Fold this protein.
Amino acid sequence: MASNKNHTSGVTQPATPGPQRQQATPPGPPVQPQQPPVNTMNPANANQAPNDQNTPLQPGGVTALTQMTDDELAKLVQDSKHAIMPNFLSDADDVTQAFVYQAGLSGLPQVLDGPAFQPFLASNNIPQSEVLARSVNDITYQAGGHAMRLTGKQLGDMLMYSKFNYIGGKHGGQALGAGAYFARNGGRNTGYGNYTMVAAINPALAKPISRSQLGVKAAAFAKTHPKFAAAVGGYNTNFYNNNMSIWALAMGYNVVTGDGHGDSRTNIIDRSVLVYRK
């Protein structure tokens, strides 16, 4: 939600010698908070490189969303519907990817070398059983008329190092909303691909909520934020292109977990809560 506009204010002129003194310029009106820019200035093509203009980054991330009014949240949703994203983010129509991009939730995760990962777990009282894994295969897809191919390692590097926050699961299976799905399995291959990323959730940054509790809280949030609810289209749990994660983010939650002890699925919406093992 960072604006690219610069603001200037009046400058007090120094006093001039002589019997008369130049009057100081009166201060201008206070600078009003700016809505995030609508990212329609960049063509969606395969060669679009990230820069400060086409990749907004909102300091404070999800916390900033919780401080927005109903009107501001509604406008952010509407603006996200017109955002033009680079092809590898828009390979599938997904309202959450557009919202995350427009809201500037592209904060980077922490990446630790292997020897430093275990001490991080120990210092944060994270048992090995709570370590996450995401396994992926190479993919080829069409986006904006271009054939795109990404290896499993490239997908992993994108999640860890790219300036963009890529939202996975856009082709269906959004039981916990749109996001990057991990299994809470101790860091083992999940069986879904030949390249596995291992990570842990930083307890200092994560604000998790279960799938069932998300639905309950969304119903209450809709009553206090009717304009946001109308803009986003109500709480939608469809298999494809649902908006559960947008509701979660608006309420301050950045991780969605499955219900019950047998459900190890963990949906990471805001990748800045992750600590990867390199």
Q: What stands out?
A: Residues 141 and 147 are 6 Å apart (CA to CA). The chain has eight helices and ten strands. The beta strands are 110-112, 132-136, 139-143, 146-150, 180-184, 195-201, 208-210, 255-257, 265-268, 274-277. The two ends are 30 Å apart (CA to CA).
